[in-house]
Automatic annotation (TrEMBL):
<dbReference type="InterPro" id="IPR032466">
    <property type="entry name" value="Metal_Hydrolase"/>
</dbReference>
<dbReference type="InterPro" id="IPR051781">
    <property type="entry name" value="Metallo-dep_Hydrolase"/>
</dbReference>
<dbReference type="InterPro" id="IPR006680">
    <property type="entry name" value="Amidohydro-rel"/>
</dbReference>
<dbReference type="Pfam" id="PF01979">
    <property type="entry name" value="Amidohydro_1"/>
</dbReference>
<protein>
    <submittedName>
        <fullName>Amidohydrolase</fullName>
    </submittedName>
</protein>
<feature type="domain" description="Amidohydrolase-related">
    <location>
        <begin position="55"/>
        <end position="386"/>
    </location>
</feature>
<dbReference type="InterPro" id="IPR011059">
    <property type="entry name" value="Metal-dep_hydrolase_composite"/>
</dbReference>
Length: 411
């Protein structure tokens, strides 16, 4: 029997299309099957949620965070963000370090975040593979995976030169960091050629997981998430991407406004943020929330990140609110939390908007999410309630074991 959810009577904001007053969203077996007005048919047997007086929006997408690999408040024991023993960490995977019991996952639900792209840190020139996951609902992280083949995290600028410079080894300069990337991509090109030749000749071939990852970047199967703040580092990122032909995404982009026209011409998106931070290092000296509006105004597709736990993940919409205060159009701000990150990271067949065919990740807000006094009232991931009103009228997280019909984690 089909599992059907119908959220009715709310102000439905699909984001990918015009808002619908007194709207209805129907989710069948985890997938949205209808979005429309009050006359939208509600199937027999559906669980009906009355959202009258509330806003109904797609779950937010955190496009750059360390949720579960850098556990908030756990110190060194919970920090598996950076494997800083090799400048080329292409073989490392964020998926292998995620603890879904980190408190940040509960914070994500309170902030309306239903999808997060988890990335290794920025201590290495090449940090490793990223992974997109849902923020609740699985017994293991594997049951929350949305996409394993998303991107590879890389870093330019101060972080890798400081980490390895302190050890008196390459890379200790920006020149050295760029050379590590070039060497790695040339090796990956050679590897791919040899692999093809071996396959053509039906000969045995010894696999190398790091080179396979970079070969997938060169083939376009994986995106390239480039940590960079200063405009000169962004220019280097562009130079390298054009030299080797991979799909570049600028992450952080503190000074992206200085060359926003270049980024727009080349259709390079920017995952901007975190916005609520101090100028903790030299390359952040021109950090300003208003820079995001300048980047978007130039025609660059933008997303907003908390870089959790740098900024707690539930504050992602507060960052959007502050960006609106400093000139970002409200419509763009909401897109930067939903459709844009989904588009940028090629997750838009599943998440980022309320439309038929996408996952039933639906969040009910007390009002406009970009109003400071609005609160999350309910969260559904793939049509299942994961955050709902409690007996004392305070929303509660629906525990993982409840999803599987158990009364406690012990079964």
């Amino acid at each position: 029997m089909a599992r059907i959810l119908a959220v009715t009577g709310g102000y439905v904001v699909p984001v990918s299309s015009d808002p619908i007053p007194d709207g209805t969203v129907v989710v069948t077996d985890g997938v949205i099957t209808a979005v429309g007005g009050a006359d939208t048919a509600v199937p027999d047997g559906a669980e009906v949620i009355d959202a009258t007086g509330s806003w109904v929006v797609p779950g937010f997408v955190e496009s750059h965070g360390h949720l579960g690999v850098h556990e908030d408040g756990e110190g060194w024991s919970g920090n598996d963000t950076n494997e800083m023993t090799d400048p080329n960490g292409a073989r490392f995977r964020a998926l292998d370090g995620i603890d879904i019991e980190e408190v940040g996952f509960r914070d994500a639900l309170r902030g309306g975040v239903t999808t997060a792209v988890i990335k290794p840190g920025s201590g290495n020139p090449i940090g490793g593979r990223t992974v997109a996951i849902k923020t609740w609902g699985g017994r293991t992280v594997d049951e929350q995976v949305l996409a394993t083949d998303v991107s590879v995290k890389s870093a330019l600028g101060e972080n890798p030169k400081r980490v390895y410079g302190d050890r008196k080894q390459t890379p200790s300069t920006r020149l050295g960091v760029a050379s590590v990337l070039r060497d790695a991509f040339v090796a990956a090109q050679n590897y791919a050629d040899k692999r093809t030749s071996a396959a053509d000749k039906d000969e045995p071939f010894e696999r190398d997981l790091g080179k396979e990852t970079l070969a997938a970047v060169l083939a376009g199967d994986l995106l390239w998430d480039q940590h960079c703040h200063r405009h000169d580092d962004i220019a280097t990122a562009i130079r390298l991407s054009e030299e080797f032909g991979y799909r570049l995404i600028v992450n952080h982009g503190t000074e992206a406004h200085k060359i926003a026209d270049v980024l727009a011409e080349k259709q390079i998106p920017v995952i901007f943020g975190p916005l609520l931070t101090s100028r903790s290092k030299v390359e952040l000296r021109d950090r300003a929330i208003g820079n995001l509006a300048l980047i978007a105004e130039a025609g660059v597709k933008v997303a907003i990140t908390t870089d959790h736990p740098v900024v707690p993940i539930d504050q992602i919409r507060l960052q959007a609110i502050l960006a609106v205060r400093d000139g970002l159009p409200a419509e763009t701000a909401l897109e930067a939390l939903t459709t844009n990150p989904a588009d940028i990271l090629r997750l838009n067949e599943r998440v980022g908007a309320l439309e038929p065919g996408r996952d039933g990740d639906v969040v009910v807000w007390s009002g406009d999410p970009l109003a400071v006094d609005s609160r999350v009232q309910r969260v559904f991931i793939e049509g299942r309630a994961v955050y709902e009103p409690g007996t004392d009228a305070a929303p509660r997280v629906v525990e993982r074991w409840e999803r599987f019909g158990r009364t406690s984690w012990m079964g």
